[in-house]
What we know:
Helix content is 34%, strand content 14%. The protein starts with a strand and ends in a 7-residue tail after the last helix.
Amino acid sequence: MLWGSNARETHPIFFHHVLQGLRNGARMYTVDPRRTSTAQWGDGWLGLDVGTDIALANTIGREIIAAGLHNVPFIERATTGFEDYRRTVEPYTLERGEQLTKVPAAVIRELAHAYARADRAQLCWTLGITEHHNAADYVFALINLALLTGHVGRYGSGLCPLRGQNNVQGGGDMGAIPAKLPGGYDLTDDVARARYEQAWGVPILTKTGMHLSQMFESMERKELRALYCIGENPAESEANITHARKMLTGLDHLVVQDIFRTATAELADVVLPSTADWCEYEGTVTNSERRVQRVRKAIDPPGLARPDSHIIAAIADRMGQNWGLPTAEEVWDELRSLSLNWHHGMSYARLAAEGGLQWPCPDLAHPGTPLMHARLWETDPAKRGPAAPFTAVEHVPPVDQLTAEFPIRLTTVRNLDNYNSGVQTGGYSSPLRRPEALRLDAEDAAELGIEEGEVVRIVSRRGSVLAPVSLDPALRPGLASITPHFSEQVDTNVITNDAWDPKSGTSEFKATAIRIEKVTEGLDREIGATWSAQPVAGQ
């Protein structure tokens, strides 16, 4: 089941494997507000309203329980919190689910029965799930379905977040999460923290750090006055970007370390040019299946660019420390000496010889862990370990509510040939690329008196932008979409909502309430000419 994921366009290698499965008799259902190209390949499409994923998941769960298709032995042996979950989903009947999500009750029932009865089943999702003001609850709702049916911890079954970047998992594993130490240890883990403190020679605060959304709030309160930004472009990628740019320009000191001179770098007091470490230096990456793999230098970096670790070490030297110039392997070996549960057995020699290893890998004789939650199927409680909890969650609508003033729901999406704010892909041509546009349903366009290619004003509660219209059969009345790839054409994040999830810190990019206005005839011609002059790559 692909939930909120247009895998054909955003994860083409993954979708290649999906197609192989379909040819071998597997079934695929796509849950997405748009009838994407991925949905067109599937056995079923659940075109839900934006922001109703929890309602749909709870309805599926309720139907599985009502039909007696839940895995009772697994639930009793390996989980906790089932009764609370049962009570929570009980009101989500098929009829109520259809009312909340606009997905026909018969289609919800078909998916629920197919998922529960399958010998093996996977739930895969992307940013369609996690860019909401209650994003973590969306994920909990899907985890509940896997626990309900036992589709977890077995070969071919499980939960798979399809990452938008090749090393998202690795970044978190190395301590880029405010409440974690490298290796996944909680800051409040006294034993682990003492080990890191001894190795680093400094005390470590147990107070959780700030995630990105909290940093911007701290800037607004004038508490955070300096920022060191590595490999991030918040001047274009943040929601409600007008506010974000104001905060960045108001800092006392901004340092940007990146491989491109991004829009954020243009605001910086100091720019530190770094290498593209994936090809210009050594190291490791960790993918979504927890597989740590070696990265090897292929080319020399340009100009004065230096590896990120060398830049950081040089700053440390100037701050009175003596870090020298550690190699990538020396940095990795320090991590291995501290991350005893996950990485201790992953030497460079083993990673090279075995083509990567999956954590946990606690010692050099350990083969790695292909199935993370296989322990849940152990009959021996000592081997099974802690039970997996159900987390009951309720449907809550998007913060940006639809009204007569803002009647259309806008959701941001990504295209196959582009990457986020376009920094890494915008300089390359592609035969697939087209100029930025507001994608709109033909029925909505007709009602508004708008034609294909016409430039309109898109207005949200935070601001407005101009964009040409492109009619898109993948959309339904009341739903529009746009990408954030080309801010020089359409500064999309001027209008997106920066309400954020308190558990994950992610802003609600996916659910902006807008209205669409016609612009004056002269302005229409002037800006329309600008867009029509944009070259179409490959032609």
